[in-house]
Amino acid sequence: MYDEVGGSAFFVELVDRFYVGVSGDDVLMPLYPEGSDLTGAKERLSLFLIQYWGGPTTYSDERGHPRLRQRHFPFVIGERERDHWLTHMLAAIDGVCADGNYDASVKARLVEYMTNAAQHMVNA
Predict the structure, then answer these.
(1) Residue 1 CB burial class (10 angstroms; 0-12, 13-18, ≥19)
(2) pLDDT tier at 64 (50, 70, 90 boundaries)?
(3) pTM score of the predicted model
(4) Nearest to 114 by CA among 6, 14, 24, 4
(5) CB–CB of 32/41 below 8 Å?
(6) Check: CATH 1.10.490.10 for 8-121?
(7) pLDDT for the residue 73
(8) Distance in angstroms (rounded) separating the CA atoms of residues 116 and 111
């Protein structure tokens, strides 16, 4: 999908849109150890998604294996947190896909992956 959507810019835009929602979310913001500075979180998520969807392996080169569930285990993630996260991610997907006029399969694949990933992070 990385090549299909034109590369890294798509995923950076997706993550930027996602964090607009997160930055005003009282349920999710306490999960971010850096507080209101979401710069690091944005970079990590962008690099992860770029790598996952077929782009450069910068995420693994810099941070090792993603181990998503393990990396998120220190944070209490229940159904409420999952639902808030997914709400912002689905809105970001809607926005970036609509603005870029991408094929419907791009949106469908992203929604499926993000829905499954959000459920996988639940640990409480």
Answers:
(1) middle
(2) confident
(3) 0.90
(4) 14
(5) yes
(6) yes
(7) 60
(8) 8
